[in-house]
Write a structure and sequence with these properties.
Protein name: O-phospho-L-seryl-tRNA:Cys-tRNA synthase
Low-confidence stretches: 1-22
Function: Converts O-phospho-L-seryl-tRNA(Cys) (Sep-tRNA(Cys)) to L-cysteinyl-tRNA(Cys) (Cys-tRNA(Cys)).
Organism: Candidatus Syntropharchaeum butanivorans
Strand content: 5-15%
EC number: 2.5.1.73
Distance between the termini: 29 Å
Mean pLDDT: 94
Helix content: 40-55%
Largest sheet: 7 strands, mixed
Cofactor: pyridoxal 5'-phosphate
Structural class: alpha/beta
Number of strands: 14
Number of domains: 3
Oligomer: single chain
């Protein structure tokens, strides 16, 4: 049996942290809330197939049945009893990770939907839902209801740039810029820590990747960028036609000298694409202050939006090139589509991904102001984590981001060598304590992200790791 004190703690009734020893009992109310939501959706479905004149007798009967079922579910929620719902529909399991666990998955933390975004998802889930009022000139960024046109303007201002578009993920932002600027054989400056999608964008355009190596601390410096540009110009006979630099990389979550990169880009007259996949939406970003020509962000990584979603913002001098409109014409019909933007393939982000981004945007604008608090919590957890002998942080210290890479080869991996579950013992122990997001089976090098956790959750998280270490005889600093 699990101590009742544990559940009081998790509900907030106790100030101290209590840890689960034999497995966490999942609150049945979570499943029941989903069941209630699905019941309401079934009732909504009746209206979707009814005539405008109103419901007929059989439809009214279905609504009445739904209300009775809903009343039963609400009673079960009050009494905390009933059977657990496991599937949304055939073979699609119910996803309750965010309700049942503290989730420290490195790529999911900044993409959790806000309450308003979840409401928007319900209302705008249909495929072309945002196109109800798409009038001339028949382009996504010109739609006024919902106010998508205004959102684009606000997005550009939020990023300190002149014009913005929404795109299906950061990778499509890279693709739009690279395909506009890079010809076959052109050198493009990436780094030894660049995301693979940047490489693919260059490959698709026929460009050639030239990397800047990180220093001994896994940091990209302005000096190294300048030295590499000089070297490329000597060897290739021309400078890179584009430079792409991640502000915080996905491997270590280290901060790179983007301001220095902006200065170097201007000095060598090289267009600079700022990759803000792990910054735009969680910390303040001003593209012009950085010296960027292009800012790319990820909606589903850092802007509390449904996937796939992202943003691309550009300076005024690049608007006509990146957001060029089509000149193509049909040879037989003479058809032309002049208002459609080539790199956007006409329109980009329709329906739920866009509306969840819009619904979350007011919250995103506020939360970036609290970035220092998020970093403080990250360092607070790291301080506890390092009390376990053998634990190491591979990212720069102190942490400047909530995404961190760690090495537990000399601690938890030593346990894994003899444990019957091998490396899976750690994720198993964490799940018993209501924690998820660590890569299954990882006990050597792995990543986590504390973004969005409260002080209370960070304290619980640290205590959980300490408890697991003590359980398996790993020395813990007093």
């Amino acid at each position: 049996m699990i101590d009742k004190k544990i559940f009081k703690c998790l509900r907030g009734d106790e100030s101290e942290i209590a840890l689960v020893q034999e497995g966490l009992k999942i609150d049945i109310r979570i499943s029941k809330i989903y069941e209630a939501l699905f019941t309401l959706e079934e009732m909504r479905e009746v209206f979707r197939h009814a005539l405008p004149a109103g419901l007929d007798d059989s439809e009214e009967e279905r609504i009445d049945e739904g209300l009775k079922r809903l009343e039963r579910i609400l009673d079960e929620i009050r009494q905390q009893k009933g059977n657990r719902l496991r599937y949304v529909s055939d073979k699609i399991e119910l996803r309750t990770r965010e309700e049942e666990f503290i989730n420290i998955d490195p790529i999911q933390a900044g993409g959790r939907l806000t309450l308003d975004a979840r409401k928007a998802l319900i209302a705008y889930g249909d495929g072309y839902s945002v196109c109800d009022n798409c009038l001339k000139p028949f382009r996504l960024d010109k739609i006024k209801k919902p106010p998508i046109d205004r959102f684009h303007d606000e997005l550009a201002a939020f990023l300190g740039m002149d014009e913005a578009r929404v795109v299906p993920g950061a990778r499509r932002g890279f693709q739009a810029v690279v395909s506009s600027l890079v010809e076959r054989g052109d050198p493009v400056l990436l780094t030894s820590l660049s995301h693979y999608t940047e490489f693919l964008a260059v490959e698709e355009s026929g460009g050639v990747v030239r990397e800047v190596m990180a220093d001994e601390n896994n940091i990209i410096t302005a000096d190294r960028i300048a030295e590499r540009i000089e070297e490329i110009e000597r060897k290739d006979g021309k400078k890179p036609v584009l430079m792409i630099l991640d502000h915080f990389d996905y491997q270590f979550g280290n901060e790179h000298d983007v301001y220095g990169a902006g200065r170097i880009a201007k000095e060598y007259d090289i267009p600079f694409l700022y990759n803000g996949a792990y910054t735009v939406g969680i910390m303040p970003v001003d593209g012009k202050k950085i010296g960027a020509d292009f800012v790319v962000g990820s909606g589903h990584k850092s802007m509390a939006s449904s996937a796939p979603s992202g943003v691309l913002a550009v300076r005024e001098e690049w608007v006509d090139k990146i957001f060029r409109t089509t000149d193509i014409r049909g040879d037989l019909t003479g058809r032309k589509f002049g208002v459609k933007e080539v790199e956007m393939l006409g329109c980009t982000l329709m329906g739920a991904p866009l509306l969840t981004m819009m619904a979350s945007f007011p919250h995103v604008k506020e939360r970036v102001k609290r970035w220092d608090e998020e970093v403080r919590r990250s360092n607070r957890f790291i301080e506890t984590f390092l009390k376990i002998k053998g634990n190491r942080v591979l990212s720069e210290m102190p942490r400047k981001h909530t995404l961190t890479r760690v090495d537990t080869s000399a601690s938890f991996d030593e346990v894994a060598k003899t444990h019957k579950k091998r490396g899976y013992f750690l994720t198993s122990e964490l799940k018993k304590r209501g924690i998820t997001g660590v890569f299954e089976g990882a006990t050597r090098e792995w990543k986590f992200n504390t973004y969005g956790l409260t002080d209370r959750e960070v304290e619980y998280l640290g205590s959980a790791f300490i408890d697991i270490a003590k359980k398996y005889g790993i020395e813990v600093e007093a």
